[in-house]
Every structure is written in structure tokens, then in C-alpha cells.
Design brief:
By secondary structure, the protein is of the alpha+beta class. It has a single domain (2-118), classed as Homing Intron 3 (I-Ppo) Encoded Endonuclease, Chain A (Alpha-Beta Complex). Helices cover 31% and strands 22% of the residues. It is built from five helices and eight strands; from the N terminus they run E-E-E-E-H-E-E-H-H-H-E-E-H. The strands form four sheets. A two-stranded antiparallel sheet has the order 1-2. The chain is globular, with a radius of gyration of 14 Å.
Length: 119
């Protein structure tokens, strides 16, 4: 799987074949799930991965969070998403949030920390 890094929002964008829902595939699985499982093990039972950035090609671990199906559905609504106060790593989004073209929220602090790890 090949990826490119988006330095503005911190997305790690996978390239390749997409499934019918628009997710990039890595073999027979979705790229973001493969990336998550490589670092963290399987997604907990009853949970699915939510993209904070709302970008289905993104497999950046800082943008993925295991949530229930109901919470993932709620987060599709901007009004609900905009009320979330902290990113998955606990940073206050009122101070750090950026909104990308897909309507996703990205944390500047997480992006900067990930960029330091990449260097």
C-alpha cells in the first residue's frame, strides 16, 4: 500500500483501488483498518473506526478512533461533531481544531506531534 502525507491536516492518504463505499483497499481489507490493526491489534468487538478527518482515504492513526456504530453515525452530523470538546488524545479542540474540506476536524497538536515522530 502506498501513501502520501498531507502536511496541512496530517492525513496519511492511501492510494489504490476503492471499494463501493469509497474506502481505499489494502488487499481484501480497508487500508485504515489494516493500519490500525498493524499498530493496535484488532478493533474491539462492537466498535468501528471513526475518521476524525472524515477522509476515507486516510489511514493516519491520529485520525482514527474506535467508537460504537451509533456514535459513528452521530459524528456524521456536523452539529454533533462540532460539540466534541477533545480529540482522542485529549487535546482541547477549541484551541487546536482545524476543519478540512471534507468537514472533518483535525487537531493541530496531534498533527505537530505526528510530524515530529516522522522526522
Amino acid at each position: 500500500m502506498t501513501t502520501t502525507y498531507d502536511p496541512v491536516f496530517g492525513c496519511e492518504l492511501a492510494h489504490g483501488r476503492k471499494d463501493r463505499d469509497g474506502y481505499v483497499m489494502a488487499g481484501s481489507s480497508r487500508a485504515h483498518i489494516v493500519a490500525w490493526e498493524h499498530e493496535n491489534g484488532s478493533v474491539p468487538d462492537g466498535m468501528e473506526l471513526d475518521h476524525w478527518c472524515r477522509n476515507r482515504a486516510c489511514c493516519a492513526l491520529i485520525h482514527l478512533e474506535p467508537v460504537t456504530r451509533a456514535e459513528n453515525e452521530r459524528r456524521k452530523n456536523w452539529r454533533h461533531r462540532s460539540k466534541i470538546e477533545r480529540c482522542p488524545r485529549g487535546h482541547l479542540l477549541a484551541d487546536t481544531a482545524m476543519v478540512n474540506g471534507a468537514g472533518g476536524r483535525c487537531c493541530r497538536t496531534c498533527r505537530d506531534e505526528a510530524a515530529k515522530e516522522r522526522a
